[in-house]
Specification:
By secondary structure, this protein is an alpha+beta fold. It has 9 helices and 23 strands. Helix 1 crosses helix 2, helix 3 packs parallel to helix 5 and helix 7 packs parallel to helix 8. It is globular, with a radius of gyration of 22 Å.
Length: about 525
């Protein structure tokens, strides 16, 4: 083939995207040249047909969900595959897949983008397994997963990640997660971004989206495939089982799940279907529904140590800033309150995509952003008041979205400093998505601290992920940060560590890291 230079490939890709047609094949490129164009955008893939890798999710004591998707030409609008393809899968207790404990055959259909979701049952609790798929005479890479333990548990270690705009940097943070010794990963949302190209490659951005804003199932499939073109993301999926929630950019910025006319509802349905096709997610509808309408919220337990509550803060919300507005929806709110009433004696972790704690921009001023829980004041007070009245202790809320790190005390009434502390919220740095400038952070960190007495810590100059270590006595959050998001092999260090002691609401910073850089910390 004729080798195209980087600039020519980007120009061809951009022209195809601007036409709203199937990029990159519509640019007149052969499949080999299409892959070259993908590489020019910063994407590279596993061997076909398992180009997007493998993943596992929603681990439980007796089983786990296995995922892959057949996409020989990952960025094509349609795959050159039969309508139905048989896919073999295998699970073993060793990385060489010799000690097989489960195997089977399933089908991948064009209707669901040739995605594969295999719920594996009958596994042992608290056990590590390896797995792989085979189809069309080829085998996938080997993935690693584990089941949740049952009964008494001495410790758990897990990671949280969020906000990974493809154009803003390479996924060195996901590379770090892949190498961490963790039991599972929670992704807190903004897995993809829906908007068009940003330009400025390579001067202002390390890579770019493949075309304009996405609207159809084919568009969203292609966008997910582009993001999985980062090898570090595929590595992190293959290394650990994941729990998943979503925020807005999986569909469109700041959307409300219950608003909008027919065009928006069609777009949302397309986004939800493509999200399901590309994620290791156990769909609540199962075989009862031909097309997925993913149910996100669920409760999972890690033995007697930790109860994980995954929230969906997009699908059922009303418009913000209404007196009777809802961020949870009536059914999910009732479900959450019932779970609080039945809470076991353990750590209670809420996977929460957008900030729960109040955030005023200046003392006595307005809320900085009402797309988060600040836009649903009555419901937040109702839910947190219910937590307090029910006497539920040891609540830790893990949050994404802000592209910066915050540590907050949770109070039923954030405007009343005498209101009791009932939990801690850790808001994590983003994987890559751009934060405010260093100058803005330096100026506004102290202002936010003065305006929000419950705010204990703010740091916005870095990117990375959090690692949480939990024992019956203590919950510790380590803020793991990368050196440079423009470097795919950037190293990882611990910026600081905060602890929460069992039976004592509120957090404190580890003395060994209290001198680390930050734009605000409360003395």
């Amino acid at each position: 083939m004729t080798r195209l230079d980087r600039r020519g490939l980007l120009k061809a890709a951009g022209a195809a995207g601007a036409l709203g047609v199937a990029w990159p094949l519509a640019a007149g490129l052969s499949p080999a040249q299409a892959l070259e164009a993908a590489r020019a955008l910063g994407a590279e893939y596993d061997p076909a047909p398992f180009t997007l890798g493998v993943a596992s999710g929603d681990p439980q004591a007796s089983g786990v969900l296995l995922w892959t998707r057949l996409a020989p030409e990952p960025l094509a609008a349609e795959q050159k595959l039969p309508e139905i393809v048989e896919v073999d899968w295998v699970v073993a207790t060793d990385p060489g897949l010799r000690s097989v404990v489960a195997r089977g055959t399933t089908t991948a259909s064009a209707t669901l983008g040739h995605s594969v979701h295999v719920p594996v049952h009958g596994l042992r609790p608290g056990t590590r397994y390896w797995y792989a798929f085979k189809a069309l005479g080829r085998r996938s890479r080997i993935g690693r997963t584990r089941t949740a333990p049952a009964g008494r548990v001495a410790s758990v270690r897990f990671a949280t990640a969020n906000c990974q705009a493809f154009h803003d940097g390479f996924y060195a943070a996901q590379r770090g997660i892949a190498r961490e010794n963790v039991d599972f990963v929670i992704h807190l949302g903004d897995y993809i971004y829906e908007h068009g190209q940003v330009g400025g490659v390579p001067a202002d951005h390390v890579r770019d989206h493949e075309g304009p804003s996405v609207f159809t199932v084919a568009d969203y499939r292609r966008r997910h495939a582009l993001y999985k073109g980062d090898p570090s993301l595929r590595e992190a999926h293959a290394a650990h089982p994941w729990f998943l929630t979503w925020d807005d950019h999986e569909v469109v910025n700041d959307y409300s799940g219950t608003g909008g006319g027919a065009p928006f509802m069609q777009r949302r349905a397309a986004a939800y279907q493509a999200w399901y096709e590309n994620m290791p997610h156990r769909d609540g509808a199962g075989a009862a529904s031909a097309l997925p309408d993913p149910e996100i919220h669920r409760v999972r337990r890690w033995g007697d140590l930790l109860e994980l509550t995954v929230l969906d803060l997009r699908s059922y919300r009303s418009a913000q800033n209404l007196a009777d507005g809802t961020i949870l929806g009536a059914a999910q709110k009732a479900w959450l309150k019932q779970n609080v009433d039945r809470a076991p004696d353990s750590w209670h972790v809420w996977a929460n995509s957008i900030m729960l704690s109040q955030l005023r921009g200046r003392p006595g001023g307005s809320y900085m952003f009402t797309d988060q829980w600040d836009g649903f004041l009555a419901e937040r007070k109702e839910v947190l008041g219910h937590v307090h009245r029910a006497g539920m202790e040891d609540l830790v809320v893990l949050t994404g979205d802000w592209h910066s790190a915050f540590v907050d005390d949770i109070r039923p009434d954030f405007d009343d400093v005498s209101s009791p502390v009932i939990g801690t919220e850790f808001t994590a740095h983003s994987v890559t998505s751009g934060a405010y400038s260093a100058d803005w952070n330096a100026q506004n960190g102290p202002v936010m601290g003065a305006a929000n007495p419950h705010l204990k810590y703010f740091e916005g100059n870095r990117y990375g992920y959090d690692v949480h270590e939990v024992t019956p006595e203590r919950f510790s959050t380590h803020m793991r940060v990368i050196g440079d998001r423009r470097d795919p092999a950037s190293g990882v260090t611990t910026l600081t560590t905060f602890h929460v002691d069992r039976g004592r609401a509120g957090s404190y910073e580890d003395p060994a890291t209290r001198n680390s850089p930050a734009q605000y910390r409360r003395d």
